[in-house]
Amino acid sequence: MKAYLLGGRPLVFPFFSGALRYDCAGCEAPCCKGAALGIGSSRELVTIQQAQPKAPLFAVPSFHQSQRLALQTPAEACWFLDKKRRCRLERVLGHLAKPAGCRLFPFVRFKNAGETVVVLPDFLCPLLVGAPTAVGPASHDGLALEIHQAQVGRSGHKELPVPRDLPWGDAMPLERRVVEEAERHLFEESYVPYAELQYLLALASLGIDGKEGAMRKVEESLRRFIGASEVPSREAVREVVALTGVLRMQASSLPRREVPAVLVALSVMVGVAEHLRGAVRTPRTTVSIWEAHLPLLYVLAHLGSRPVVKSGVTLREAVGELPTVRAPLLKVLDEVERNGRRGVAQPLEDILRVQHEAFAAPLSADAVAMLHGLGRVLLRACTFVPL
Q: Using CA atoms, how far apart are residues 358 and 224, in angstroms rounded to an integer?
């Protein structure tokens, strides 16, 4: 992977070059409705004021939590879209006349990860997964050049949470390696081999020896638990593989050794989702499931592991922030606390099965809601020991 810099700081793209593509010409322009125009230089602001003298009245303090000035466009459509929904600034004055945020979109989310600046996409854009390429606007070279031309600052970006088991100085080489390995797993029939590699790489970063086959067991146990036999299509697997680096950054606080299993759970859920009647799957399907159901995925990924409550934490207090709490969930949490003090440790699946029909497959909506709550508590208050 080539090295890129932003004002002397390492610049990282957590997706392989050319992986995420977009087609503005054939798009319904959702990014041009109620979106902020990030201003990268005074020249861009002068151009906008010449075309729309009153536009500065709609300034907002920042663009995507950066220190860059922005103008908020109407929810209906940007001021600069013509009747064919094309950008007048680009059509009349050229691509470089557009505001920096528009030129960069959808790659506008810049985050600090220690000394590194990470570039994440905005999935408001209907991105597609493409074949690797070293050239073009979606390539690493093309994006790095656009970032330079847009005069993106080297600082002022929001910090990504640090992984719980590795400092960024050790975690970032791992993340780079994971992205480098993505290309050769693009056309696998299952996500498990790629997850297995991520798992072994994470253990190696932690100085731990690992055995192959752990991720296959994770998939088998969670399929049995939720009663899911649906297999994700090759296209779905390819999208999860291509998005893996981005998803790992979105959940950066998770221990690196645990992320591969959570991604296996995601791949199973994506397979279930694409088999629903009337479903339409795109890369945004994968991202939306990851963002909305991460606590559930976390539980499913750890069915075969022993939960251990962190020192000084009481689960009854941790559950107080949940919107609703049902009796089976409280019983599970009590059992988790007792399990940590027993001579014989139980995996999470056995603790859940004690509740009999409450978590029987196929899972009910009520059971899934409780697992979401359990996941939120476990993410905050527990660690897991493989059995």
A: 15
Question: How far, CA to CA in Å, does 215 sit from each of 206, 226, 271, 386?
Answer: 18, 17, 17, 12
Structural domain including 88 reads: 4-159
The domain tally of the chain equals 2
Where does a domain end: 159, 180, 208? 159
Establish if 41 belongs to a structural domain.
yes
CB atoms within 10 A of CB 159: 11
What is the per-residue pLDDT across 103-136, written as a single tens digit (0 to 9) for each? 899 999 999 999 999 999 999 899 999 888 888 8
Q: Is residue 112 part of a domain?
A: yes
333-354 core/surface letters (b: 16 or more CB in 10 A; e: else): bebbbebbeeeeebbbbebbee
List of residues 6+ apart from 177 with CB closer than 8 A: 201
Q: Is residue 183 within 8 Å of residue 244, measured between CB atoms?
A: no
Give the global pTM.
0.92
Residue 319 and residue 325 in contact, taking contact as beta carbons nearer than 8 Å: yes
Residue type, 53: P
AA identity, residue 291? E
Give backbone dihedrals phi and psi of 87, rounded to 5 degrees, phi first: -75, 120
Domain's final residue, options 136, 159, 182: 159
Start-end of H helices in the chain: 42-51, 88, 100-104, 140-149, 168-182, 192-205, 214-226, 234-250, 259-274, 283-301, 315-318, 327-339, 348-353, 365-381
